[in-house]
Design brief:
single chain, 23% helix, alpha/beta, 17% strand, globular, binds S-adenosylmethionine
């Protein structure tokens, strides 16, 4: 059975929720077509662990040993538009229609330190319909992310809010946004800022709590473009 907080979002009685759960337990319970889009940053399948001086040093994120969790979760969404972060080291998501590159800027870059180029970019796989707007270059650039936990970074794989907002802006009709691997809550923060409803699922209690706190401190706009457009 769906939790009351999730049901309230689906019924339009709540602006959003963050669930602490394994998404593979929750997704099969959700009715077909109950979300409008999935924007997510799933475990990449590379067993990545950071060597940075941070509390997450040498820890792997859950489910990162292969892409099975990612593929099972996205398998529940055959009709909805999907954007999912990924790496060239593992296969793209099924039915990928196009690929975007997030240029993280020269300050970023993990990977093989003996290789004379940094991995200063990440891939975003895009599938499905509903994407629209001005035709633009497929490399996305913006303010760089804080890289140090001591300066405010919340998750080893945190994504910038502006980047997710830019993806959501290309889904103007998507009201209910799902991120089944929400981490520190970035997708839901971006959705809330745009006046959309959101569902975030996170297996780690620590990051689910981080996400809830972020959402509690995120303002929902009084007027969204959609509501302004709808005004007489
Ligand atoms: C790449 S991180 C997402 C980071 C996020 N984009 C952010 O900005 O903070 C993926 C997250 O998925 C979570 N995760 C892994 N397997 C999961 C599962 N089966 N269900 C729900 N969450 C899961 C991990 O704990 C991790 O926080």
């Amino acid at each position: 059975m769906l939790t009351p907080e999730l049901q309230a979002v689906l019924d339009g009685e709540s602006e959003g929720c963050i669930l602490c759960a394994d998404c593979l337990d929750v997704l099969p319970l959700m009715p077909d077509g109950c979300v409008d889009a999935v924007v997510t940053d799933p475990p990449y399948g590379i067993t990545y662990s950071s060597a940075h001086g941070a509390s997450w040093k040498n820890t792997c994120i859950a489910g990162d040993s292969d892409t099975r969790v990612r593929d099972s979760a996205l398998g529940y969404f055959k009709r909805e538009p999907v954007a999912a972060f990924g790496t060239w080291k593992t296969p793209p998501i099924a039915d990928t229609r196009g690929v975007l590159v997030w240029d993280k800027g020269s300050a970023s870059g993990m990977g093989d330190l003996s290789f004379p180029w940094k991995l200063s970019w990440e891939l975003i796989y895009v599938r499905g319909d509903g994407w629209s707007g001005r035709r633009d270059e497929g490399v996305l650039r913006g303010p760089t992310l804080i890289t140090w936990e001591s300066k405010g970074r919340l998750h080893p794989h945190e994504k910038p809010v502006w980047l997710i907002q830019r993806l959501l802006e290309r889904l103007p009709l998507a009201n209910v946004i799902l991120d089944p691997f929400v981490g520190s809550g970035t997708t839901c923060v971006a959705a809330k800022r745009l006046g959309r409803r959101y569902i975030g699922i996170e297996i780690s209690e620590k990051y689910a709590e981080v996400a809830r706190n972020r959402l509690a401190n995120t303002e929902r706009p009084l007027f969204t473009k959609e509501t302004q457009d709808a005004d007489p």
